[in-house]
Structure formats: structure tokens, C-alpha cells
Amino acid sequence: MRILLVNYRYFISGGPERYMFNIKNVLEKHGHKVIPFSVQSNKNIPTEYSRYFVKPIGNKDVTYFNEVKKTPKSVWQMLTRSIYSLEVKKAIQKEIRDVKPDLVYIIHFVNKLSPSVIRGAKQMGVPVVLRLSDYFLLCPRFDFLCHRQICEECLTKGYRSCIRKRCVKGSLFASMIRVLSMKVHSMIKVYKDIDAFITPSEFLKKKLSSNGFDEKKIHCIPTFAVQEKPLNEEMSIGSYGLYFGRISEEKGVETLIHAYEFLPDHSLKIVGDETTEEAERLKVYIAKHGIKNIHFLGFKKGRELEKIIQHARFVVIPSIWYDNLPNTALESFQQHKPVIASNIGSLPELVEDGYNGYLFKTGNVTELVEKIRLMDRDDKVWEMGNNSHLRFEERFTAEKHYMKLLKVFKSVLKTD
Known about the structure:
The protein is an alpha/beta fold. It contains 16 helices and 14 strands. The protein has helices at residues 15-29, 72-83, 86-99, 116-123, 153-156, 160-165, 172-187, 202-209, 253-261, 277-288, 302-310, 327-334, 347-350, 365-374, 378-395, 398-413; strands at 2-7, 33-37, 103-108, 128-131, 145-146, 149-150, 196-199, 218-220, 241-244, 268-271, 294-298, 314-317, 339-342, 357-360. The chain has a 6-stranded parallel sheet, with helices on both faces. Helix 13 links the parallel strand 13 and strand 14 (357-360). The protein is globular, with a radius of gyration of 22 Å. 41% of the residues are buried.
């Protein structure tokens, strides 16, 4: 099978990109040909297909919109990439003509490629499968958050709520553009061109099906985690609590820090980019209040990150948004680590309270402190860690993911 893999970045910057390269490797190991389509960037992994990639908004060193120098050209690019880009449509159709894929598998396109990748492929007669990693089809902000609280007003009252509250980047203009793009996409019915949707969680599947999307097209296939090589050292129950991942408002790291204020005899390590606005704010808070038991380690990856996870006692996922099956949980399960998680979104699908970790009420510092103290028992940590690994083997291996995904691919190609 020849698969055109579409994502707005061709380098690792987060969960969607880790998934993209992981599934690319898995598909290739099973004999499929995987061909990328993306945006030009100096950070991209080298590929012979980069000649098909579209020009970036701004220059090739830019990753985020706030880094883009605002010129008439870049503003026009932002508008078209948010709403519908003929430039991108032309580019993907050229690659399709040249490489002749059997299907297109889209990971992420919002604001950098536009849904013209969908229509461009369908007009070439190629089936399209779209994987969702957030809620962009339903929420202008992608995460159903407003002022650190869950908000679904756009579903119940319409998109004017987003404009009124300036939900997108706190900007009236950005909110209006995002709402305009969603209305245009609905008007031209571009998502009707999708042959199948892949959701990592049942929670997201239910959100889509209860808000107008065809349930028959939606397939829940949990993501997976991989290790390049098994760790040689024996597993340990560790001595510290661990948070690793993106340090941003929706991840709820502030809740975790407040919990450890009440646990001076417990140690917490935080792994992630500590230059983000949220990380800087939290570090100022820690310094101001003289908190000594919390340590920022910065961004880590590969074997270095695996060893930090291995020597942790447990992992905490304190999200305040509808977290959509985070990789951090799977990587923790893989290394026999119990997880303490907010009781929100897909997290109850991952963590069974008292079996492979604990759940706590979202944002509730007191309850989180109680759950952390329950991890003081070595025998319980060991038991739940083993249960975590069993859950990983049951649900989240690469092979299980591949078999389910292949079944969907064959269904849209109408082959046995």
C-alpha cells in the first residue's frame, strides 16, 4: 500500500509528530510505502519528498505564529491557511499525481495547511483518513477551555461565544478568523470528504458523534508507545513523583505544584520545555514561596527521558482540559509506572482508580495530595506498576494499533 502521510510539521515538536514518525516506521516495517507531505522548515527531517512541501508562513526557521513577522504576504498566508489555501491544494495534487498513493492519512493540518489537503486529495480520487488529536472540529480554541475552566458554549450557544470571550489567544481578530474558518468549512462541507476519522479515545469519538459527525465513519484506535531498545537496568519503584510533557495552562501543572507545597517531605521532578510562559510563571511562584522539593529538569527526550521515567515512583497527569489519551500515560505504563490523573476527558479510560493508579477531581489540590500520599506504600506502587504494564500490553502496543488501522485503511479502499 502507498500512503501519503500529511502533517504540518515534519520534525518532532509534540505528540502528533511523535505519532507520525512512529506510525511511519510501523507501516514501513510491514512493507508499506509511506510518503510525506508537509511544510518547508529548517527543522525538518531530510526527505527526498521535501520538494513537494509548501512554503512556510514567514520563513523556514519559524515554528509558531508569534514568531512570524507580520507582512502583507504573511498575513495573507495566515488567512488562507486558516480558511482554505489554493496554494496547498495545488501542491498536494502535484504530489498525488507524481507518487500515486492509494490513500491519504492526515495527522494535522489546521492553520498551516488548511483543509484544502482534504478536498485536493478527494478531487484526485484518493480516499482520505483523518486522525484527530484534539477538538478542533468542535471548539475554536481546540481544547474547550476558557479562563482555566471547561467551556462548551460554542456547542450550545454558537460561535459568538468565542468572539465575545476572545477565546483564541485572547485576541478579537484571531477569534473572528478562527470562527470564520469553521463556518466556511461547514458551508463547503469539506469534512464530508473524509472517508474515516481516527480518534485515540472513546471520549473524543462520543463528542464527535453527538455533535453531527457520522458515527459509522469514526473509529477509536488508541495510540501506542515504542522504545528503540529495552532498558538494561532493572525496574525500580523510584523515589520521586514525575510530571513530563508540555508545560502549558491546560496541562494543570499549577495544580500539581500547589499539591507539593503541602508535601515538603516528597520530591517532584518536572520535565518539559521550561521556557514557556506558563513554566516561567510557575518557576517565579516556586522561588517566591521558597519551595525546595520541586525541580525543573528542562526538556528531555530519548534514552535520557526513559531513565528519568524508570526511576520515578509514579507519574502525575494533572490536566484541566479534556486530555485526549496523552502519550505520557502510555510511556509511563510501558515502564511499569502507576499514574495519578485528573478524572477528566479520556484519562478515566487509561487509569482505573486503585488498579494502575489513582484518579482525582480535576483541579482539586486536597484530593491530589491524598492520592500522592497513598503512593507511600511500596507494595501498592509495585502492584499498580505491574498492572500498568499489563494494561499497556493489552491495549497500547504498536502491533495492536497497526492491525486496527490497517482494517480501517482496507475498508476505505474497499479491499479485503
